[in-house]
Amino acid sequence: MSERADDLVLVINSGSSSIKYQLLDPESGEVAASGLVERIGEERGSVEHRADGRRIEHEGPIPDHKAGLRLVFDMFADTGHDLAAAGVRAVGHRVVHGGEIFYEPTPITDDVVAAISELSTLAPLHNPANVTGIESTRELLPGVPQVAVFDTAFFHGLPEAAKTYAIDAKVAAAHGIRKYGFHGTSHEYVAGQVAEFLDRAPERTNQIIFHLGNGASASAVRGGDPADTTMGLTPLEGLVMGTRGGDLDPGILLHLMRSAGLDVDAIDQLLNRNSGIKGLSGVNDFRELQRLIDAGDESARLAYDVYIHRLRRYLGAYLVELGRVDAITFTAGVGENSPAVRADALAGLENFGITVDPARNTAKERGARYISPAGAKVAVLVVPTNEELAIARAASRVVSERGGRSNSVENGGR
User: Which residues are catalytic, by number?
Assistant: First the structure.
């Protein structure tokens, strides 16, 4: 590609046993390279790296994130992007939970890393992995400005009534209990894209966004600002997801502790890994779920029906919350690729001005598009999300505001 390395931003999304990454131009959105490291710490790991039309693969033990990133850097060099030698403009890290502390893209310092680590009590499956990726990248690129972009940031300013849980206020304050919301980078990006697509000012646009992937969330956005969202203190609340069940009676947890003798770790495993679509059907991939439904599997059909029921429940709640809705948008893996989910979620709502056009809904198109009929009162859209681009732009903006200075050796927090 023609871009200089120092015009590009490296985006890192570090999971517990994986690393997703992209090297891209924050202005144009053009991707110079991307890839995925999987099964870190297992006997046989793998890396798939794509750049300039080439695909390089590696299989073998990857003991930790630093080793995985070192392999990635070697692959960058092999495809003409030597990050350590030529440098990049910045590194943007996706961090899942910012708590009450972080609600803007934040230059990474030692104190910031420590604070993100302390927030692991609120996101035990996510923040420790994010910290591991940050620490490894700082070692490998010690002179490059690095920026944390928080999944919770967009929803930081939720209205008090929306973010407050009705429990003892002193207990909530002492332990940071409030609705934080997640997938905020995606919801904010898509909200902006919707307003642009409709040629409306964001402050004049009310919208409902369904981010439906293996993790799933919905948001109500009033005039560009979040009014409500489905995920809460953690990503467990809200919609039915691939392996998470979303809303449930908290008394179920007490019942399982007393009746089944489950401890905290067992309940954590149940709620995060073995619930949702997987818990009901045995699979968490939506394509496999559809194959089971087509084969007549009743458990798969029930899982799908529960999934749609929950979508419709929140759709109704957000219609009432917003009062006037200009657009309903589907994004992320399932939202962008499942016409059946979109049609079933909005079926029978013609009296609300909400209609899905069958031909538009099933058309093999990519990019932002209408799936509602021409002239519909409420625009129904599919808009691809691009969290990596949003993170790259946020990181680039922070570096520009700071004059391009390296923050890797600075002390202090935000």
Answer: 151
